[in-house]
Amino acid sequence: MLSRMRRFAIAGVVGAASVIFGSSTLCVAVAAPNPGDDTSLPSAVETFEYPNAAKILKERGIALRKGDGHILLSDCAATTDIVVWSSRIEEPNPDRGQYCFKVTGSGKAGYLSLEIPKVYRIATGDYAVRASLTADGRTQDINVAKNDGESVGQATNPPGSPAVLVELRITG
Q1: 14 in Cβ contact with 30 (< 8 Å)
Q2: What is the pLDDT along the chain (172 residues), one digit of tens a residue?
Q3: Going by C-beta distance under 8 Å and a sequence separation of 6 or more, which residues neighbour residue 166?
Q4: What is the spatial order of strands in the sheet that 71-74 belongs to?
């Protein structure tokens, strides 16, 4: 069965061909629409979920939730636009507690919801960042200027109060 969109596309091509070829004889067979055919195309709704998040959680031990695609987990050898250090070095963690993120697009906007436990430092390259951390049931926002770094979470909280990085935002 042909969907409505396909039938309209075929009818448009046939109509255009008859206009182009004018007086020439052109024969095209087109399937007649089935009156009971109400097949519609699936809707394209963006959920902003991070691609391959389950695989990253399994292989690298961090949860990447949602974002706008302008902050992406990257190899530290490739980029250091945003670097996050964590004291979590147990398996699975081939990064040994250092996670790097690449900023894409214009660099004027970016958002990523994530979970990196036991964070103690965040550094930036050419982009200012606002980081949200949770510790002891409280949320704290930290602004990190471009080309700068800030001690956060475990480095500033009392011992035994590890912080979880839950959000990164490009602020300029």
Answers
A1: yes
A2: 445 545 544 554 444 444 444 444 444 455 555 555 555 555 555 556 888 899 988 888 889 999 999 999 999 888 889 999 998 766 655 667 899 999 998 888 999 999 999 899 999 999 999 999 998 888 999 999 999 999 988 767 666 578 999 999 999 7
A3: 113, 114, 115, 132, 133, 134, 139
A4: 71-74, 98-103, 82-86, 119-124, 149-151
Q: Are residues 40 and 57 located together in one domain of the fold? A: no
Can you give the CATH number for the domain in which 151 is found? 2.60.20.30
- Domain range for 132 is 53-170
* Rounded CA separation 109/102 (Å): 13
Contact by Cβ (8 Å): 101, 72: yes
Q: Please, what's the b/e burial string for 142-164 (b: 16 or more CB within 10 A of its CB; e: otherwise)?
A: bebeeeeebebbbeebeeeebbb
d(CA 110, CA 3): 38
d(CA 127, CA 146): 5
Amino acid, single-letter form, for residue 126 = D
